[in-house]
């Protein structure tokens, strides 16, 4: 329910949005497809030529100092230039395109001020990162609900109904906070950051300060509008900067709280968060929790971002490929303790980079929970992923009808284990291939006249 309804004064009214009803022939999957078509037509799709940088997240290998409450701030000791250059080398070795810095690069948690005294000027760091490692710079930028409050004016704190400040609670609607935060974010972009993650977006709570510039009381809907503004003020000046905006009510959580199109605007360069599956990704595949990402993609074309730890993945890259398939923007990090597995994972990333356009720009189809297809209509090609979440090898010997929106007609390159046939107006994938235990088969369905390599084995 819109927050304005719950705060409606006596005798006042509120205008609600339009309710849309559509009769759909078919099962629930046709319902999902109709839902996605509607939002696609409204412009809720990835930006044209969407090409988000593949991230290497330093968090998984660098000793963490901040994630457990009560730990002392040890960034001076642990979050050093030497450690970051070591992570940059890994990013290059794993075929990544940008070094993503999770908390620790700033002067204090959530300050959004680059710690020049410890790390040198940001612009110089960005220049060396590009010149020596061919990498961009991406930054974690938590908002009002998750920050060191001393980094912001005391006037930005929440005020209760009695006119008293709420200690340690920044108001996400205070102009004092928003204007200062915007200024700092713009400075980060000026000095070379090309990606900003807006974490810490939990609702900060009601506020009754008449000098904050927000309605009283300050509602979750007001916060959503404020954070949309915080995206727009950055992209007005730096439209090329990609922003990931966490759920503006629930932030870092595996609970789906808001529709994924809210508070987005059609066509803007902002993506959603992959619902905190960054910690136990491999485990979440087998509990079924990560299937949520599959169903989000069935309902929306809006891009999602997620980084995962390779430490918990296997030699088949099962978690890596599932994340790549369900999140148009991929981040990785962490060095597997088994060097054989680590080498295999580097190989998977090299393959991903070759196929990246299918995942970042392609039309997603969940043919079933173990079968994903990414289709590029301009070249009539696709990437097929066959997942196996069991402890035994699985023979996929079956036919799967393709959605009407997929046209793989033409002279496809013969692919061991997969062929495309046509029955009437329906195209069918005929499979005859084995998927290893806890593994995945990634198959490129490529037109013969576009083949650049005579032998391609995935």
Describe this structure in words.
- By secondary structure, the protein is an alpha/beta fold.
- The protein has two domains: 3-361, TIM Barrel (Alpha-Beta Barrel), CATH 3.20.20; 371-450, Immunoglobulin-like (Sandwich), CATH 2.60.40.
- 29% of the residues lie in helices and 21% in strands.
- The protein has twelve helices and 17 strands.
- It has helices at residues 3-6, 28-41, 75-78, 81-93, 116-119, 122-133, 175-190, 220-237, 281-287, 291-299, 318-326, 339-361; strands at 55-57, 98-101, 136-140, 157-159, 165-170, 193-198, 242-245, 270-273, 304-309, 329-333, 363-368, 371-376, 381-388, 394-401, 418-423, 426-435, 439-445.
- The strands form four sheets. Strands 1-2-3-6-7-8-9-10 form an eight-stranded parallel β-barrel, surrounded by five helices. It has a four-stranded antiparallel sheet with strand order 11-12-13-17.
- A hairpin with a 2-residue loop joins β11 and β12.
- α7 packs parallel to α8 and α11 (318-326) packs parallel to α12.
- It is globular.
- The protein starts with a helix and ends in a 13-residue tail after the last strand.
């Amino acid at each position: 329910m819109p927050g304005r309804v719950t705060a409606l004064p006596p005798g006042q009214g509120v205008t609600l949005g339009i309710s849309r009803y559509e009769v759909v022939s078919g099962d629930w999957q046709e319902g999902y497809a109709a839902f996605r078509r509607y939002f696609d037509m409204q412009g809720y799709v990835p930006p044209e030529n969407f090409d988000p940088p593949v991230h290497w997240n330093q968090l998984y290998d660098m000793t963490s100092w901040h994630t457990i409450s009560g730990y002392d701030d040890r960034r001076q000791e642990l979050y050093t230039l030497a450690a970051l250059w070591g992570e940059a080398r890994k990013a290059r070795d794993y075929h990544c395109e940008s070094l993503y810095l999770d908390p620790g690069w700033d002067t204090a948690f959530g300050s959004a001020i680059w710690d020049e005294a410890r790390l040198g000027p940001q612009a110089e760091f960005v220049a060396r990162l590009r010149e020596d490692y061919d990498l961009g710079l991406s930054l974690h930028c938590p908002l009002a609900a998750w920050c060191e409050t001393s980094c912001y004016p005391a006037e930005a704190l929440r005020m209760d109904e009695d006119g008293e400040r709420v200690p340690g609670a920044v108001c996400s609607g205070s102009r004092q906070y928003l204007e200062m935060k915007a200024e700092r974010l713009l400075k980060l972009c000026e000095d070379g950051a090309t990606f900003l993650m807006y974490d810490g977006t939990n609702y900060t709570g009601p506020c009754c300060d008449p000098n904050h510039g927000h309605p009283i009381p300050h509602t979750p809907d007001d916060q959503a509008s404020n954070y949309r503004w915080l995206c727009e003020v950055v992209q007005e000046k730096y439209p090329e900067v990609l922003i990931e905006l966490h759920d503006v009510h629930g932030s870092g959580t595996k609970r789906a709280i808001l529709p994924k199109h809210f508070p987005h605007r059609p066509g803007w360069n902002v993506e959603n968060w992959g619902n905190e599956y960054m910690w136990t990704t491999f485990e979440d595949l087998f509990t079924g929790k990560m299937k949520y990402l599959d169903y989000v993609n069935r309902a929306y074309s809006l891009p999602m971002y997620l980084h995962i730890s390779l430490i918990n993945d296997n030699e088949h890259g099962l978690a890596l490929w599932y994340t790549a398939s369900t999140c148009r923007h991929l981040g990785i990090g962490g060095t597997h303790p088994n060097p054989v597995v680590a080498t295999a994972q580097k190989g998977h990333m090299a393959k991903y980079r070759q196929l990246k356009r299918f995942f970042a720009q392609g039309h997603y189809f969940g043919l079933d929970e173990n079968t994903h297809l990414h289709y590029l209509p301009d070249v009539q090609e696709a990437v097929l992923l066959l997942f196996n979440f069991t402890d035994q090898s699985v023979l996929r010997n079956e036919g799967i009808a393709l959605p009407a929106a997929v046209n793989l007609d033409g002279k496809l390159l013969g692919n061991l284990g997969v062929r495309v046939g046509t029955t009437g107006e329906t195209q069918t994938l005929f499979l005859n291939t084995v998927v290893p235990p806890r593994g995945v088969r990634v198959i490129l369905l490529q037109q013969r006249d576009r083949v650049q390599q005579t032998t391609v084995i995935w």
